[in-house]
Amino acid sequence: MKVKLKNVISDFLVPMRDKPKIFDGDIPWCRIEDIKGKYLSDTLSNQYVSKKIVKSMNLKVYPINTLLFTCSATIGVTAITKKSLCTNQTFIGLVASKEIEIEFLYYYLGLIGKDLIKAASVTTIPYLSKSFFENLEIELPSLRNQKQIAKVLSDLDAKIEVNNKINQELEAMAKTLYDYWFVQFDFPNEKDKPYKSSGGKMVFNKVLKRDIPEGWDIEKVSSSCQIVDCLHSKKSDYVFEHEDYYLLQLENIKQDNQLDISKKFYVSKAEYRRWTTRIEVQDGDLVITNAGRVAGLAQIPENVKAGIGRNITAIRPKRIKPTFLYYTFQGAEMERQIKLNTDTGSFFKSLNVRGIKELLVLRPPKYLETEFEKFSLLHRRKRELNSLQNQKLTELRDWLLPMLMNGQVTVAAAEEQLGMVAEDGEMYGKDCVQELKMVTPKPFHRSSAVIGTHIIKKLENSPGMGRVKFQKVLHLTEFHCNTELGGLYNQKAAGPHNDILINHIEGKFRNYGHIAISNDIVNGNKHFVYKTTPNTEESEIAYKNLEEDFKAKLDNLIDILQPLTLKETEAISTLFAIWNNRIIAKKEINNSVLIKDFYSWSPRKKKEFMDNDIMKAMDFMKLHRIVPTGWGDYIGKEK
Question: What pLDDT, in 10s, does the model give residues 296-317?
Fold first, then answer.
């Protein structure tokens, strides 16, 4: 049935025009710039008003679950308050009665947003009055249906938001490593110690006007990349002939440096060929904006090919690693150079090809650039998959929105669509942890005992070495080195544990005599002691036949863990599992939730560890690149 908003909205809150001049309270003062998603709970400008100011200026305080709608200038930006707050006069606040679900109204106003913008355009300055909203007619199903529709759409939005947060964390991890190695210059030296902090030789560079590691060099971007400007021509007409023929536009390059091609600007086959005579961008290429949002950046993901539209330049890496170049362009030094090379002489700022070619890149030794590429490329691929998934989810949500509202699709059918949209075992709009199937034990790696022998040989005299520490190192070997050793991991008090695997390996130790196992009593508890034997070298000969890449990664891991205590190793192994679980389950990742999950792992954790212990382990992992990528199976509680 159709109803006017004034019949289902209990209050229409319109703020005063006056803006506070004193911000010394705790009530957020929010602007349109503070809205970054569906919900609003804080200000990005760090402006907070006091109750005294609210009273003296008669400011409107929106209660929790108020729907904010921008009603002047930029029409149609919406958000739901999750905390009591104030805003400027750009907004009107809609407070729902018991007859309407506020999240349903959020999506409904989004659906009719274009009509509202059109209605506001009849005045010189676009504006929608309180009276307009009071008399706005909407189609309102039963409250039960409202909640069901809102839940379907909210589940999709929640999944999109989780993916965005995972991407932010993945990006932050790669940036942190880039900063350690190529800004602070604490990359691992030949002894795997931080280079600069350990006294590595630095030399002054006259061009950059700062010290850089000895042997490093600088060069122009044009020395290692092909730089291609867009075709200087009038904008093509939008014509759909084939899915493959489209040109990237400025709006495809997002603020978070991701490429969003959910909305494509299609052109004819002839136009596409004309616009790609210079370059057709592909995996690894960078695209950078020349005007508007100057120096907006994105990297072309795997399996994408496109033409570049107006005001975009393509940078194709030739003699430089693509992901390393991507993070170099996001650094403070490159930002400084871009500002110097940006043309501000005209009305609009612009960054032309000539300016891009003059940009300088700091080049480390090839091996170090390659090592960073290995780490960061895994994270980039994961981000690309999440972004692709978000594009599919967005398309589904935007298709479902009008269908659900006008009754062409039922809620049951929509939920079925949520299940059908899953690809390659990925699930959308559901709690992935609950949906994960119980994993069956895996067959043993043919060299699992050989690998176990090598670990013990190198860690025999490591602090606290015993069965628990051996198990933690086995876990990190498997999940960090991406090699299945067999068995099944479960959550145990001391961290990830694989009884099946360790019993198998210890059985091999006893059969072949490569490692001697004995028991000792430490603090009243039985403690396993592992010792090498004269037969250990037989196993080491077999170890030499394993893949070089695996051996290099494992030996590096062992060397990093060698000086650590049992407690420190347990913290790293547990954190790795928790972090990896969240990546697999596509859940939010930040320090706070990792610490919370750590303490929730088992009651023992709260007794043995403090926040500082966990943060030290996290920093150590990032420094030494012992960071999960979502490889392997989710590690759950034993059933």
Answer: 999 999 989 999 999 999 999 9
